[in-house]
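Hi R.,

Here's the chain you asked about this morning:
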Amino acid sequence: MWLNPSDIQLIQEIAQEAGQAIMSVYEQPTINWQLEQKADDSPLTLADQRSNAIICQALACHWPEIPIISEEEEKAPYEERKKYRYCWLIDPLDGTREFVNRNAEFAINIALIEQDKPVFGLLYAPVSQTLYWAQKGEGAFVVEEKENRPIWANTFSFEQEGLRVLGSRSHLRAATQAYIDSLKKAQFVAKGSALKFMALAQGQADIYPRLGPTMEWDTAAPQIILEEAGGQILDWNSRKPLRYNKADLHNPHFMAQGKLI
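And here is the predicted structure, written out as tokens:
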């Protein structure tokens, strides 16, 4: 066991506190969001910064021995990072474009990495106040009325007609559309942020092909949740699970999917 039940409860409370901070910004007029564009042209808001501060400070306080890799923090050099046995991998506001567009499809991602694999993951959706989590070997859960309800991915085959294919509301690319068009009568489902992976983990969709750029903090927490629900996130070329804390923190293109027959 990596985290005991009281640890997991504490991380849930940290995510919920960060979610409240996000919502306090979301409910204000846009002019108060302190909206900026980062070097990679992605947006940054006061909500990202407040959520990041809450999560990183709390994790550092309770687990000072575990380093943190966060989207909104300066990254240690790989020469240092490659020595980590464990690290936290954090996206304090996944789906900032969805936040800016006010469509409610954004989330908080918190993952614990051992070597290069996620062993614990939590995703919290602040608008719906829905919390998902998983720990390796223990199953995947959505928390409803303070109870852990197990979730399961759908079983599917790539040969079947009518596959439910998830795609980004903000980032759908021509290569992804071409792949979707190659399937048999695929049904396209648009959804923002890491909530796409939770749709897979709950059997609400079958596959999510991503032929565009993503970062490790976008997928680490969703990966362990989806794996424990019976699904996978696989490198598009090698067909092996994604790995983490690499020298380059970009993900390769990938296929996220339910339980393949």
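One quick note: The chain has two domains: 5-150, 155-260.

Cheers,
M.
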